[in-house]
Design goal:
It contains four helices and eleven strands. The chain is of the alpha+beta class. It has a single domain (about 35-225), classed as outer membrane lipoprotein receptor (LolB), chain A (Clam), CATH 2.50.20. Helix 2 (about 35-50) runs antiparallel to helix 3. It is globular and about 55 Å long.
Length: about 240
């Protein structure tokens, strides 16, 4: 009768050890999950260090204009950024009912655009509002936003698109909305930000501003971090 008791005790001990191992493994997995503070800090640091990036901005809904005369309606932009403060972009606009594209170059606060009618480069008028370099400014752009510009920030998990991405949702102030839209819109909003887990870099962001017929929706996609980018001052009149 002794042997069976020893066998039973051995089985019980093995079972206890197995439960302990599973519990420890589960605890480690839980401990490995990053907190919202860790995600934001890591992403803020990553966005502060970027040298180049490509970006796409899509805007739908209510009309948004890039000039004070409310003649040139903004539809979207595709562009590139190079640190510390240079960007070029092709801006999709509607000028008096005509869908066209306007080239834009911004370097150290100076902006040039192509004339919507002639296509020639010229210095942007003072009321030209779109400046994509502010998106990446270390003091007001992505890095600053992630370091403290989100109110009630929380992780939305799991990301239904890709496990490697982390989705953050929070409220941003009107001044931050102005930064993200290149100075075109300024009203408090709730934003969703998708962050690449391995690198901490922002890959996508979406938010709405206004309501009802005045609602304008924004989608931003960032890609090709570190790609070779050269941005030069355009030749006026060419």
């Amino acid at each position: 009768m002794v042997a069976p008791r020893r066998l039973t005790a051995a089985v019980a001990l093995a079972f206890v050890l197995l439960l302990s191992a599973c519990s420890s493994s589960g605890s480690n997995q839980l401990d490995a999950a990053p907190s919202i503070e860790e995600v934001l800090t890591r992403s803020s640091e990553a966005m502060a260090e970027i040298e180049t990036v490509r970006f796409v901005i899509e805007q739908t809904g209510a009309e948004v204009f890039i000039d004070q005369g409310m003649i040139i309606r903004f539809l979207g932009a595709t562009g590139r950024y190079a640190a510390p403060s240079s960007a070029d972009a092709v801006v999709q606009v509607d000028a008096l009912g005509l869908n066209t594209e306007v080239g834009a170059v911004a370097i150290e606060g100076q902006i040039w655009i192509t004339n919507p009618l002639t296509g020639a480069w010229e210095t942007a008028p003072p009321d030209f509002a779109f400046d994509p370099t502010v998106l990446f400014s270390p003091t007001v752009g992505w890095s600053a936003l992630l370091a403290g510009g989100l109110t009630d920030a929380r992780l939305i998990s799991p990301d239904p698109v890709a496990e490697a991405r982390q989705q953050v949702r929070g409220t941003i102030a009107a001044a931050t909305v102005s930064t993200l839209t290149g100075g075109l819109v300024d009203q408090e909003s709730v934003i969703d930000i998708w962050i690449d887990g391995p690198s901490g870099q922002v890959v996508e962001a979406a938010f709405d501003v206004g309501e009802g017929v005045e609602l304008t929706s924004w989608l931003m996609v960032l890609s090709d971090y570190g790609a070779e980018v050269t941005i030069a001052e355009p030749e006026l009149g060419s």
